[in-house]
Amino acid sequence: MPNLIGHLVLFLLNFITIVKNNYFVYIITNKPHGVLYIGMTNDLRGRMWEHKESLVEGFSKKYKTRLLVYYEMTDDVKEALQREKQIKKWNRDWKIKLIEEVNPEWIDLSDNLPNFDA
Q1: Which of 63, 65, 68, 118 sees the fewest Cβ atoms within 10 Å?
Q2: 30 closest CA partner among 71, 72, 62, 73
Q3: pTM value?
Q4: Residue 52: what are its φ and ψ, rounded to 5°?
């Protein structure tokens, strides 16, 4: 029995580690083909709530970027930071192409985010 408990504890610790290690690079806008904001977070739902409620001063609040039109996920924070910087350096046409490859209608993806914690 102690061996089973040990395995269960190890499993739960690994599960918690996996859950906590989701990082998202995302693009939000104020309207289709509007202003684009690129960001990175480990809590996409929470971050989108902050954007929609205008809780953080800055670009997103100023330009009312509230629509999540693109996101990608990784378990590596360095990879997420690198990808965010990479996309920010791209010209606008490349960013639009990236969005339209997965979201040609520019719908707000934040309304139907999957449960990343499961």
Answers
A1: 118
A2: 62
A3: 0.81
A4: -65, -30
Q: Amino acid letter at 30? A: N
**Residue 69: which of 106, 116, 36, 20 has the closest Cα?**
106
Give the span between the Cα atoms of 106 and 70, in whole angstroms.
9
Domain ranges in the chain are 22-112
> What is the token pair recorded at 104?
């040609």
Mean pLDDT check: name the lowest of 18-22, 57-61, 91-95, 112-116. Answer: 18-22
Residue 70 CB-density burial (10 A; 0-12 exposed, 13-18 middle, 19+ buried): buried
Tokens in use for 40? 């990175």
